[in-house]
Design goal:
In chain A, 0% of the residues lie in helices and 57% in strands. Chain A is built from no helices and eleven strands. In chain A, a hairpin with a 3-residue loop joins strand 7 and strand 8 (70-75). Chain B contains no helices and eleven strands. The relative contact order of chain B is 0.34. Classes of the chains: A mainly beta (111), B mainly beta (113). Chain A binds chain B through residues 31-32, 34, 36, 41-46, 49, 87, 89, 91, 96-104, and chain B through 4, 6, 31, 33, 35, 41-45, 48, 50, 55-56, 58, 89, 91, 93, 95, 100-107, 109.
Chain lengths: 111, 113
Amino acid sequence: EDQVTQSPEALRLQEGESSSLNCSYTVSGLRGLFWYRQDPGKGPEFLFTLYSAGEEKEKERLKATLTKKESFLHITAPKPEDSATYLCAVQAPRNTDKLIFGTGTRLQVFP
Amino acid sequence: EPEVTQTPSHQVTQMGQEVILRCVPISNHLYFYWYRQILGQKVEFLVSFYNNEISEKSEIFDDQFSVERPDGSNFTLKIRSTKLEDSAMYFCASSGQGSYGYTFGSGTRLTVV
């Protein structure tokens, strides 16, 4: 069964303290791995799509990487406005468009 | 930046009543989706819609649910007879041809009492 597991569930960081969020996946034929940011009471906001092992993408203080079994979202020198829940999702074989989400990592960055 | 718009933002309904959740996807997108998120749980796929028909649906999407694209801009989710367990945030999403970067709306919080 296709599955996505995110860790840690929650993370508290001091402003400027870099860290990484993990997304482990088990899918039969990965088409894409997605990272989203979700603020309370809002919809997921698209950050990155990764398609193949070794791929990396960056946006401001965020960098996403992908291996054959997991993805990392690295946050460099975070600011309080980076506080949110970060969701990982995978899209599996050719005959499906659906995304399978993990439970997310709730990030709090305090000054 | 183009947005997916959902209305209403919050709907309270009595058990057994019908509700219609509305969405305006991004105008040049071709693929439309509904997802839901029960409080504290994962975002779950409900249904995908392409070329005026359902392309895929989950086990959650039973006979009580239906989707429609009544005109060129709106995309709706109807729940015929709501249950308490239908209480959740419902998200509409859309994507373009060859694009895997879904855009989600802000959601409708449905509360069934």
